[in-house]
Design brief:
262 residues, Enolase-like, domain 1, five-stranded antiparallel sheet, four-stranded antiparallel sheet, 11 helices, 33% helix, 26% strand, globular, binds flavin-adenine dinucleotide
Length: 262
């Protein structure tokens, strides 16, 4: 269990950012589920829960998810489920259990850029952005590639571009970490293929996606699956070998594309 010398419920993002950079051992608090797995001694714990950042809203062109929204809110949100074939809700529904998802936040999940992350894989296949207090609005793909440095993730922004999408994960048991996660999307004729839990951070298979036309043939889909294996690196951990993951990827990418073309 981690410890805090001081707990502060901030009144503004400005205050939070000031505190965060005051001392290298000051930390932003999300739902605490990951933090509590560690045993670090932090100086100040910065709680954002009084800032109204736990909402899921939509504008004409975007869906916005505040950093303190929980995974359960994502799973049950009418707004989220209206778009992208409901893949965001589907991507979180196997994470541990309802009580856990009632606490785990989107901010903690995305900011941490976990190699096993379901939601990062799903968001990467959409036209997603993160808004950082200091870093401003940047594409999620860029954020995932950046080294982790101190900032506050304020919200996730997803463009409502009429994308079709399909999310698939493979798990040894239904609530375990994923062995592999795949999300495929199609916006007009443009595809995205995101592969996560490799077991490294989710990444896009850009060349594979280019092989897919608006209505790809069986051969096109087969070629895209082979290309995905060429361009994405898989690794081995206790949940599966690199070779097993690459075979899973081939199957899950094909199923994802077929789902969208149905
Ligand atoms: C046992 C267990 C099983 C899990 N299984 C899965 C799984 O199968 N699939 C999956 O995708 N995920 C899984 N997770 C991860 C989980 O879903 C959350 O992503 C994780 O708990 C982080 O969310 P949190 O709100 O608890 O963050 P916290 O633990 O509070 O914070 C995590 C980190 O993010 C930082 N942080 C939090 N909010 C912000 C913010 N707004 N801005 C900047 N930094 C911030 C904190 O300072 C900390 O460094 C699992 C976690 C645990 C503990």
């Amino acid at each position: 269990m981690f410890s805090l010398k001081e707990y502060i419920s901030v009144k503004s993002l400005e205050e939070a950012y000031g505190l965060l950079n005051q001392n290298k051992n000051n930390v932003i608090l999300g739902g605490l589920l990951w933090l509590k797995m560690g045993n670090k001694n932090y100086n100040k714990g910065i709680d954002l829960s009084q800032l109204g950042l736990d909402t899921i809203t939509e504008t004409e062109s975007e869906v916005e998810i505040g950093c303190m929204a929980t995974l359960r809110q994502i799973e049950t949100s009418q707004i989220i489920n209206n778009y992208f074939d409901g893949i965001l809700g589907k991507s979180v529904k196997n994470i541990v259990g309802v009580q856990f998802r009632n606490c785990a936040t989107v901010g903690g999940s995305v900011y941490s850029r976990f190699g096993f992350s379901d939601i990062l894989t799903a968001l990467l296949a959409l036209d997603s952005y993160v808004e950082l207090y200091k870093g401003g609005i940047i594409p999620l793909e860029q954020f995932v590639a950046m080294p982790i440095k101190k900032d506050i993730l304020i919200k996730i922004i997803i463009k409502k571009d009429g994308c079709r999408a399909s999310y698939k994960s493979h798990r040894i048991a239904s609530t375990d970490f994923p062995v592999l996660a795949v999300c495929v999307s199609r916006c007009s004729a443009s595809w995205k293929v995101a592969i996560g839990a490799r077991p490294n951070k989710a990444t896009l298979a850009i060349n594979a996606a280019k092989l897919l036309s608006q209505n790809p043939t069986k051969d096109d889909i087969g070629a895209a699956c082979v290309e995905a294996l060429n361009e994405v690196k898989f690794g081995t951990n206790l949940r599966g070998s690199a070779e097993y993951r690459s075979q899973l990827a081939k199957v899950l990418v094909r199923r994802g594309v077929e789902d969208i073309c149905k």
